[in-house]
Amino acid sequence: MKNIPIKTTLFVSFLFCVSHTTLQAQDQNTSIRQDAKFTQLLNEKRKINPTIAANERYKIQVFSGDSEKAKKALYECKQQFSELDGTIVFNTPNYKVWIGNFRTRIETERNMLEIKKKYPNAFLIKPQK
């Protein structure tokens, strides 16, 4: 193993210290300029396809069957539970009626107590992405 002279070690250490003190990090300030039309388009997209933002939430399935009966069940749900969102989802070979868009399981179960009075076979689901 080779011995490094003290002068060389001190010189390298000095260069390291000088270069280290002169380096500066990037600023932490970030500004994002976003066109208002982008937000408007994103909101329209979410209205058209609500499953984009809603897949992380709980829902209640109240019906599974053919298309016409599913449309009728959705209409009845919207009449009786107007404060809840409702949608029809097609999973071969059945159409399913999902209502609600709940953030927590507890909130879903509280609403399900009322929904089960009208739809005794209703159950809680959390759709997969």
Automatic annotation (TrEMBL):
Name of the protein in question: Sporulation protein
Signal sequence, start to end: 1-25
Gene3D superfamilies xref list: Sporulation related repeat (3.30.70.1070)
Keywords: Signal
Source superkingdom: Bacteria
Originating organism: Flavobacterium crassostreae
GO molecular function: peptidoglycan binding
InterPro entries assigned to the protein according to its UniProt record, in alphabetical order: SPOR-like_sf (IPR036680)
Presence of keyword Signal: yes
